[in-house]
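Sample intake sheet
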Amino acid sequence: MLKSAVRKQLASSARCFAVTKRYAHAQVPFKWEDPLDSASLFTEDELAIQETAKAYCQERMLPRVLEAYRDEHYDRAILTEMGELGLLGATIKGYGCAGVSSVASGLVTREVERVDSGYRSGMSVQSSLVMGGIDEFGTTEQKEKFLPDLAKGRIIGCFGLTEPNHGSDPGSMECLAKPHFSKKGYFSLTGSKTWITNSPIADLMLVWAKLQHTDKIRGFLVEREQCPPGTLETPALRNKNGLRASVTGMIQMDEVPVPQENMFPGVEGLKGPFSCLNSARYGIAWGVMGALEDCIQRARTYALERRQFRNNPIAKYQLVQKKLSDALTDASYGILAATQVGRLKDQGKTAPEMISMIKRQNCDRALANART
């Protein structure tokens, strides 16, 4: 009986091998740039948007990045150029925004981070954190006033949540909003935020602070040009080890006057900032896949050109092949996962934990493979 079972198993294995062998020379060639044909899941519009973003990133951003990274310099014209192409706040409908799908926006982020993570950070803050926050929680007047200029990159925004003493504990924030001591209809904001992307160059700051009389966290739109001298400082944080092509700083407020109409009316607590962060984290899940794909392309090219051991390209050897295969597999799975969550997001079926899963997994795999 045992021998019979073994024979059946061997016969089954032989059939599987025969099928595998028959398809080893299939008519469809393997595409290492897109191993699982994820492009077939995208619409024509999404693919066109990706091509627009790719052309811009490779032709206009890539030539700047080396010097920008070395010098810790961020060219704010980048956001203006992105705005001209409709890449900022791309999922927002109206107000000069493109109104595209979450997947299309993710494809843009993928192309930007294929060049540099710092450039993706600057775009994410403008699009997801600031514009997304205004679109979701702002009044009609706030949207009409700020979104068109943010969409074109004419004004630059930043997102102030993290504080010097409460980096991972925003619920304990010390930044305080109270009625202004001399200006009726105004709040007065006092406190500090740190590690804020875009803050040194921002024209508009979405600042989260505790309202004094309720002790609830509220969102305020702070306009730099409306702040009297001495009330607002945004010093840059220099000598960073990462994201050097983006600009990072602090927001230091001392009785900054903010009109009541610049407060988000209908959201309080951490729901507001966390909702904004969810959208940004979804974009990061796409962006890190672009960074990993760039690593794969560069490593593959080097492995084919570098010759050792009797003048063989090192790509011939299994250890190199395994590393490239692992990276390619992780990138392919990551793209499929981000695509699925994006479709669910547009249908209103996304749980925050889904975004946490793909962001954590894609970042982990991108880092692990890049460091291999």
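Comment: Confidence is low (pLDDT under 50) at residues 5-22. DSSP finds nine helices and eleven strands in the chain.
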